[in-house]
Amino acid sequence: MWLAAASLLVLLVPPRTGSGEPMPRGDSAPPRRWYNKTLGGRQFWCDVLWFHGWRIQQNAFTGHYRLLDPRNYRHASGTYPQCQSRLEEIKRQVQLPPLQGTAVVLVHGFGRSSRSFKTMAEALRRRGYVVVPFDYSSTRQSVHDVARCLHRLLQSLEGVQRIHLVAHSLGGLVVRAYFQHHRDPRLGRVVLLGVPNQGAELARRFSDTHAFRMVFGPSGHQLAHEAKNLPVPPVPFGVLAGGRGDDKGYNPLIPGDDDGLVSVASTHLKGEADFLQVRCTHGKLKRHRQVIEAVECFLRSGRFRPE
Questions:
Q1: What proportion of the chain, given as a percentage, has pLDDT over 90?
Q2: For labelling, which of 15, 32, 72, 187 has a CA lying 20 to 30 Å from the CA of 198?
Q3: Are 124 and 104 in contact (CB under 8 A)?
């Protein structure tokens, strides 16, 4: 809690130059060069560029940008061109090689961060993939806002020949929203993990309450009412659901089988190339051994299980 409060304080206080005066906000202002660890605040920022673990992020409240290194140390803050210019300097100084190969972009769910994909990310790296964890502000932005950031992130992956997307829960709706206005010709396959493609029953049950709107923000309404209206991915996609394997599931408030938050029935999406159900709860899908093996198999062959 104190990290969130400290992060909010940083957002509200304008950056200062060495003279003690507030830093100008225009494009002509020199980028502020930071070398300190960030205070967290992952729910305030959305990735718009990724390069060998370096990230440029945009703030969901103020719209300004920051440049982070792979250890989450901040190296610049200001406008996008300023952060990009600083990154180009660092590329030359460190001699970072161009990106190449096949990338897998991991899109987390509501209230989480890319760190929730740690186990799967490590497994995919061992398989030779360029793993790109995508962080975004799930509580402050709509899925359409985040989809625009995702589009910018994919555009930044210059040199990558092929891109796959793996999304969990709300992240799957972000991916579907992306296809409403964007399409990268390098996109290969999409995996949707525990995604409420037909809408989340629990969200519909509580979406009219003030507390729900305060906590879930604009994405909460979309979880409840707009999911089924989002585009179907125009590339091969697989749906993987968690559940108990019976007609009761883990949560008595959800009809039929479920993973505790999302019903198995609501994960289905017309046109799915393959479907797999695993005995697992919603939050554990990303690190479940069987799920990780199935994801690797689908990215390789378009099926969750070997022939």
A1: 70
A2: 187
A3: yes
> Is the pLDDT assigned to residue 67 strictly greater than 50?
yes
Judge whether 183 and 234 are in contact, CB under 8 Å.
Answer: yes
Q: Between 213 and 27, name the one with better pLDDT.
A: 213
Torsion of CA 136, 140, 142, 145, to 10 degrees: -60
**Residue 254 domain-assigned (yes or no):** yes
> Structural domain tally of the chain?
2
Sheet containing strand 187-193, strands side by side:
130-134, 102-107, 162-168, 187-193, 237-243, 274-279
Give the tokens for residue 282.
Answer: 């919603």
**DSSP 8-class letter at 280:** -
Domain boundary among 97, 132, 153: 97
Give pLDDT, residue 166. Answer: 98
* Whether 50 and 118 share a structural domain: no
The three-state secondary structure class of 91 is: helix
Q: What's residue 36's pLDDT?
A: 67
Q: How confident is the model at residue 74 (pLDDT cuts 50, 70, 90)?
A: very high
Between β-strands 130-134 and 102-107, what pairing exists: parallel, antiparallel or unpaired? parallel
Question: What does DSSP say about strands 36-37 and 73-78: parallel, antiparallel, or unpaired?
Answer: antiparallel
Are 138 and 239 in a shared domain? yes
Residue pLDDT, tens place only, 18-32 = 333 233 333 334 455
Closest to 191 measured CA to CA, from 101, 104, 281, 263: 104
- Cα–Cα distances in angstroms (integers) from residue 117 to residues 68, 132, 283, 284, 290, in the given order: 19, 11, 11, 10, 15
Q: Is residue 307 part of a domain?
A: no
Residue the block writes with tokens 């939050």 = 283
d(Cα 186, Cα 165) in Å, to the nearest integer?
11
Q: Which residue has the higher pLDDT, 67 or 19?
A: 67
CA angle at residue 15 from 18 to 147, to 5 degrees? 140
Residue at a domain's end among 97, 132, 150: 97
Examine the pLDDT at 97 and tell me if it is beyond 80: yes
